Amino acid sequence: MRQMIITKSKVLAALLLVTVVVSAGNAQVRDDFDGAFNPALSWQWVAPGNTPYHTEDSTHYSFSPSTLDIVMQPGTLTLNENNAHNILTLRVGPAQRGWYIETRFTLDLAGASGAWVQAGLLWLLHADHYYTYHLVLNPFNGNLFLGTAHEENGSFINGGAQSSEWSPNLNTVTLRMQDYLAGDLGSYVELWYDNGDGNGMRWLITVPTAAVPGWPFTVLRDVLLNGGRIGIYTDLSGYTGEVMPMASFDYFETNLPILPAGDVNGDCIVDDADLLAVLFAFGQTGANLAEDVNGDEVVDDADLLTVLFSFGSQCGG
Ligand SMILES: [Ca+2]
Ligand SMILES: [Ca+2]
Ligand SMILES: [Ca+2]
Coil, helix or strand for 179? Predict the structure, then answer.
């Protein structure tokens, strides 16, 4: 009996070791938005090129016990408007094979109509360089469908995918983007969805990025190959009615390497280079400063402390 207990505990220890090794190489992170943000994730509200740079507006979001509820408001990343609110992202390093990002949310239109109301997944380098995969209201017939958008240098185009339409009653969707393993890393992105019609998760389309000659989606290529920001977003596309729609996000999940807080240069480790960057930029003010770790538009003690406290931290913990 004693022998068996020892054997079992050895097996358990070995399994734990394997788990640790696997998760270090390919860490999955998830925020269930259960009444608060997961404190292990360094969510940021900043959107380079947007005004305000720090997009948080706490009067327009709250938590239920199981969702993050964002009440939309006028403002958009579209074209040169760049005046969106509550843009929520995580900084990530270069992608690895088998990467994915996924979210599920409910879009409560609250009677809104006549505008391209959108909510979904965001890839962000700048308010004029981003890619979105989203649920969208067709303002002409009230149906919902899945759309995509890409903006480069403020030039806005379709992101290469659009679904058929369905009744607005089916307003809870799961959206997933993942690696297309048959192609080179960073070259193709698979789009998947579940619109709650009982048919489960299904493939929508595989989108080539700008790593494939002739394709324009530079943001997908650049974030996958070099890192950037991923997250969730909402957009009213000009709607200014009385009652605002609300997007209730149930979770966000990814296995892309999340950069630790304080990783100023985005190389997946907080070290001397980040410390020096903050010291040299100390006292600088304004938007879009990489050394402004907490996004309050000044490089000061608070940013320095974040770097010091997370000194040695790496992607995946
Ligand atoms: Ca823009
Ligand atoms: Ca670093
Ligand atoms: Ca700061």
Answer: strand
